[in-house]
Structure formats: C-alpha cells, structure tokens
Design goal:
This protein is of the alpha/beta class. The chain has 16 helices and 13 strands. Keywords: Glycolysis, Isomerase.
C-alpha cells in the first residue's frame, strides 16, 4: 500500500481552478457558466463527477476569506480572525504580534459625505496608488504624534488596499464601510470596553477625516475632476483582524500545495495555510486578466506539487459590476488558456468550482450552493456534460460542503490516513 501511495504522489497532481464569485442565479433560463463556450471544462465535466457545493453551509453568505479557509479544509468558525490580516499577508506586509490589519477601499463621496461609488471607479492607476500611499504616510505621521500608533498603508489591486496599525490597538472595532452606495461613511466604534479598542476606533475615524480633507490636494483628483471621473476622496475601512495560528495544509492533510493568484487576499489565505504562492504575468485580479501565463505556470507547478490552486478573480469583479457578458468572457478566456494542456489535465485530477455565488442580478455575495466538478482518470463518471448551476445538481457528487473538498482530494492522491483499524 505504501508503494502505491508513493507512486500516486509522484505521478498525479491536482489542478484546482477557482472562479471567484462564479456562481450565479438563472436569468432568462441561463447563467454565465451555462452560457459560456468552455469546451475544455465541459469535456472534463462529461468524464468526471459533478455536484453542488455549499462553500460554508446552506444559506450562509460567505466572504472570500472565510470561503477559502473552508475550501482549503479549515473550519472558518475556528480559524477566522478577520480579513485584514490575510490581505496584509498577501500584500507582503510582515505582521508582528499585536498588529491589527484592515482591508480598505478607496471610494468617492459627495459633499455631504454620502458614498456614491465604493470603488472610486474601480481602476486606480499605479501612479494614483503611489500618490495615495504618500498621502497616507503623511496622515500616519500625524497619527503617531497624536496617538502613539504607527500606521502602514499599502495599495494592492484596483481600489483595494491594506491598513496596518501597530501599537496599543485592537481588532475589536466596527467597520466604516456602509457596504452600499447612498449611505454615509460610518464612524468606527469600539466593540468592547477595552481601552485599546477605543483608541483604535479614534485612530480610524481620524484617518477617515484627514483623508477626506487632504485628498483635495491629490493631483489624481485634479485630473479626475477635469475629466468628470470619480474622485478618490474617501477611504473605507473594514475587516479588522490579526494573524491567526494555523496548522499547515501539509501537516494537516499531507498535501504539498501551491497557489497561483493575483489578489492579495487569496495570496494571504494561501500563505496562512502553508501554501507556496506564485503569480504570473497578466494575473492581477481584474476582469480583464490574461490567463495564458498563469495556466502555463500552474501546469508546470503540477510536476512539483500535489495540488496547484489557480484563482480567477474576474468573474467576481464582473458580477459586482452587473456585467453578465464580462463574466462569460472571463470563463471563456480561462478555458481557452487550458486548451494546449488538455492532454496533461486528462492524466491528472482537476477541480473546478467557486468560493461563493455573486449573481449578476444581485451584485453581492449570496448564500446558495455553487457548481463543483471533479475530474480524474479513476473518478466515477456521471451523465453531466456541462458545468453550470443548471446541470451539476444532477451529478454523482451530490451536495457537499466546501470543507469536504480538500479531504476528498487527499484521498484520491493517496495521502489521507486511515481512520480506525
């Protein structure tokens, strides 16, 4: 048995393709997955097992952070300590004990402070991001003199960034992000009686106020104003957290794993569970990403790892924009990038799924199950021939939870340990 398991580990690997927010609801009898022309993925579906998956549990609306923890085989109710820490880790920030990290959005507000665009037009150029970082450094000097708390801000992808507070601080504060347009930025408030939480809330509110005031000086806003583009005149703070202590995926499941991702959050979650993290040219985390180099890298990594996780952000971005055609296009471009490697994929295992549904009609995460596909030379073949929400419910996998995926893969790879005698 040992020799068989060793052989399996050397000869087979898993390519796990994750369409972020890929799940959807039917509209006029179709969904983006159903409408997309994706011959490689559909061919794998026709030779594998399909099903529906609740990323966390039925009816639970997952965040990408909690969903990925579950998919990697970690109970998010046990291991989740806030999104900000994963964002910071994925952005390359070295978190120290006691640091508190937050996820941020650059946003646009009107003269009354009402949010009119939670993403400031979504695209932030590298030059604009650098200018914002300079502004935040200036605000940080003020904060440190006044509160004795140092801050670090780093832009990541598009409108996103991370904010790290270092000092006598706490993650137990409320978000300032109203999570919808048409509402004012919320004041941060302490969530317990700890003095550190009170100071942290005051610091966040000071950052919010100073950013709104000083953003008028940004050259980016002068350019944007002259063109009628959304101004970068607010910063929304949410998801405070600290670095959790997590057993590595190798120690827990005996899996050597790598992740190819362009989004800081996903790189952070992958790093936190002990995956080696890579990125590729063209993979930056937008709906306009190019996938040829990312897929090429992922296939190359399959020779060195038991599992290679490839994250596709564009489906979620298109969903939040209400862009049905754009979501279809992301799926089709990824499938096209797979075509040169179809023979290699046939010799290994392939998983295709989503971390949550983000219906184009809703533009937010929802709690319904998402389709899941498992292909492998020795995986039971069912009669599903198309990967989508409208078809996978008939598959042999049935309805499973996200936390089931990694143990299932470990079993197929011959890496799982027997339970009992």
């Amino acid at each position: 048995m040992f020799l068989i398991q060793k052989f399996l580990r050397v000869m087979t690997s898993v390519l796990w393709i994750l369409f972020d927010g890929g799940g959807d609801r039917p509209r006029e009898g179709t969904t983006p997955f159903f409408a997309a022309l994706k011959p490689v993925i559909d061919s794998l579906a026709s030779y594998g097992s399909c099903g529906m998956m609740d990323p966390i549990a039925p009816g639970i609306r997952p965040g990408s952070d909690t969903a990925h923890l579950a998919l990697f085989g970690y109970d998010p109710y046990k291991y989740y300590t806030g999104r900000g820490a994963f964002e910071a880790l994925g952005a390359g920030v070295d978190l120290k004990p006691g640091d508190v990290a937050f996820r941020t959005n650059l946003a646009t507000v009107d003269e009354r402070g009402i949010v009119v665009d939670r993403r400031a037009g979504r695209y932030i150029s590298p030059e604009e991001a650098q200018e914002v970082e300079g502004l935040m450094a200036k605000i940080g000097e003020e904060i440190e003199r006044k509160y004795g708390v140092s801050i670090l801000y780093k832009s990541t992808v598009e409108h996103r960034g991370v904010l790290v507070l270092r000092g006598a601080v706490s993650h137990r504060v409320s978000d300032t992000d109203p999570h919808k347009v048409g509402e004012a930025i919320k004041p941060s408030a302490p969530l317990d009686g700890d003095e550190r939480a009170k100071v942290t809330a005051e610091v966040i509110n000071e950052i919010t106020a100073r950013f709104r005031s000083l953003s008028k000086e940004l050259e980016a806003n002068k350019r944007r104003g002259s063109k009628g583009e959304p101004l970068i005149n607010a910063i929304l703070v949410r998801g405070g957290g600290y670095m959790p202590s997590i057993e590595s995926i190798h120690d827990k499941y005996k899996i050597r794993a790598a992740a190819v991702a362009g989004v800081a959050l996903i790189r952070g979650v992958a790093k936190a569970v002990g995956m080696d993290v890579y990125t590729a040219e063209g993979l930056v985390g937008t709906k306009f990403d190019k996938f040829d180099e990312a897929v090429k890298l992922a296939v190359q990594l399959m020779k060195r790892y038991d599992l290679v996780f490839l994250h596709v952000k564009g489906t979620d971005s298109a969903s939040h924009d209400g862009d049905f055609r754009g979501k279809v296009d992301v799926v089709e471009r990824l499938d096209a990038a797979l075509r040169p490697y179809e023979a290699v994929l046939r010799e290994n295992y392939v998983v295709v799924t989503s971390d949550h549904a983000t219906p184009v009609s809703v533009r937010e995460h929802t709690g319904e199950p998402v389709p899941v596909l498992l292909y492998g030379p020795d995986v039971i073949r069912d009669d599903v021939t198309k990967f989508s929400e409208l078809t996978c419910w008939r598959g042999a996998l049935g309805r499973i939870k996200g936390i089931d995926i990694t143990p299932i893969l470990a079993s197929y790879l011959g890496l799982s340990e027997k339970f009992g005698e």
